[in-house]
Design goal:
This protein is of the alpha/beta class. The protein has 2 domains: 158 residues, 2-Layer Sandwich (Nucleotidyltransferase, domain 5); 50 residues, Arc Repressor Mutant, subunit A, CATH 1.10.10. Strand 1 and strand 2 form a beta hairpin. Helix 4 packs across helix 5. It is globular, with a radius of gyration of 19 Å. The termini are far apart.
Length: 220
């Protein structure tokens, strides 16, 4: 049975997009992908992921990617949760892959209704399986995790190149990201707005803006 695997990269970062990827593969191709070293993208180096991305795209029936910008995340989160943003992207990928009889997703939420809500948004007859650590346990989901992670890294590098800046990974725990964000916010004038690639709805951003405001008030 052909399987559609779906995973994401970039739920937690304060900078850059959320990327959701789907990889539709034939059952008979799974052993070959496994032999190539397909596994959870977090266990692979960036170079290895890039090499595997090329192989996945050669072998897969199709590969689909949904990129949700930081600005779009901020706008959407005024009305829905991050889980629902990701769910909508998953549903879009499933609906664009009508021939997949089985879909496996890396479950992003503890919500008991996540799978049911996702099924309600789909228009295909695929059987959906949602599990934690699916990116480690299922080849199709591992492949999707590699596609998602590689594409997100690519998007970050494009932002860096466009603005001639150093962002690091975009995660709040990354020293390069922390340094960039802190310095950028501290250098802002009162009339400046944050660039679209920074998630303004994230607590990290809010805290830094609050610190700057308090520091400014302290000058009076």
């Amino acid at each position: 049975m052909n399987t559609l695997g779906i995973d994401e990269a970039g739920r937690g970062p304060v900078i850059g997009p959320l990327v959701v990827a789907g990889v539709h593969i034939k059952k008979e191709h799974e052993p070959h992908l496994k032999n190539l070293g397909i596994t959870d993208s977090k266990l692979l180096s960036p170079k290895k992921r890039e090499n595997l991305e090329k192989e996945i795209k050669k072998i897969a029936i199709n590969v689909r990617v949904v990129i949700i910008s930081a600005k779009q995340i901020d706008n959407d989160m005024k009305n829905i949760s991050l889980n629902h943003i990701e769910m909508n992207a998953m549903a879009k990928i499933i609906n664009q892959t009508p021939n997949a009889k089985k879909t496996i997703i890396d479950l992003p939420s503890n919500s008991k209704t996540f799978t049911q809500e996702l099924e309600a948004k789909t228009t295909t007859k695929t059987k959906i399986t949602a599990e934690f650590k699916a990116d480690l346990n299922y080849t199709s989901v591992s492949a999707a995790s590699i596609i998602a992670k590689t594409e997100r890294d690519r998007q970050i590098r494009l932002i860096e190149k466009k603005h001639n800046i150093t962002l690091g990974s975009g995660y709040p725990s990354d020293p390069k990201t922390k340094t960039f964000l802190k310095e950028h916010i501290e250098s802002m004038q009162s009339h400046d707005t944050l660039p679209d690639y920074i998630r303004q709805s994230w607590q990290t951003t809010k805290d830094l803006i609050k610190q700057k405001t308090q520091k400014g008030l302290g000058d009076f």
